[in-house]
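Section 5.1 Outputs to date
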Amino acid sequence: MRDFKEILGSIKDFEFQSRDTIKSVQLERMRWSLQHAYDNVEFYKKSFDDHGIHPDDLKSLNDLSKFPFTVKQDLRDHYPFGLFAIPREKLRRIHASSGTTGKQTVVGYSENDIKMWSEMVARCIRAAGGKEGDMVHVAFGYGLFTGGLGAHYGVEAAGCSVVPASGGATEAQIQIILDFKPRIIMVTPSYMLSLADRFEKMGLDPRDTSLEIAIHGAEPWTEAMRQEIEQRFDLKAVDIYGLSEIIGPGVGGEFAQTQDGLTIWEDHFYPEIIDPETGEVLPDGEEGELVFTSLTKEAFPIIRYRTRDLTKLLEPSACNMRRISRIFGRSDDMMIIRGVNVFPTQIEEIICKDDRLTPHYYCEIRRPGTMDQLTVVAEIQKNALEQKEQAAADLKKQIKSLCGVTVSVDIKNPETIERSAGKAKRVFDYRNLKS
């Protein structure tokens, strides 16, 4: 087998190579990654052995379906460094999830991993229309969260200058945008809308800034929210995808000229779509849960990781790598209300299309008796205060029509819903809280 450096060696503009070339490189790298995980991570050796499968059994890309899944609990069970494939002394960086449920999930990077990650984010910036010499305002959070530093290194790899603003301090960020005049901003879509609100509260028109491109990620967002952002800022808004368990932001990016879903950088991350209930691999075009296998990661190889993100694989368009459709929800964020599956993005789509409402909202789930009760909390625009009652009735009716569930609606006065300074929390589930 060729050594790692040969396998990692990239072809210039690889994403535009033929599908046959891409698949050939994927197979070679997948064989390396499976063997690397098996040889260096006890968890994978045991998992493969328990399933009666060995890396040598991979004869084609389709054979990957024979290998077991990895889930987030596996990362928590081996906290902090139990799934690393290189000695701790050879790590160059450690990141971790926010740890909102259970232990944090910890991931590590070798020097080669960081170089690869940086180049993947640089690809996303180029796909979005960024070019060498651009100034990029990074408003993703810095720290253990992968967003800020992942974007930061990618901006530099793309030959751009980075403004490491991080999240929060909104008025200070606005002043920096006005003074430094960046062309690109990288930020969560919910915080982008918070910036728009603050611009307007300060008597400024966000359409008058230097920003031409917004690269959004870290949370699901809808086409309606994209249109809201583009209209309020007069720019092009595109998607970036990633999660820390795979690498961080940069697993895939959207091309500005097509805006038709996220292109996955398939030379480093192999995607599958599975039935969330059965684990069966689904054909391209069918909706299901997204699963990834890393093909070149040294420090933290990940085999068939169940992301819980719900989407579908699509044919290539702007380049020769496959796309995923916009993430429409997470299987673990799905609200089951009296037997009906409801996703926050479905509600967001309705709210963003109503000119009387701001795009800020959240959902509360309670069980006052024996039945679940979903309350959608939204916010009225200043110029529509007299329409609060009608807007609430219309929202309730549209949610019933689209989602098939009856909800309560609480329309708040303008500027009363807390603005996000990073990832927006959309669902508050109070059903299991003791009184």
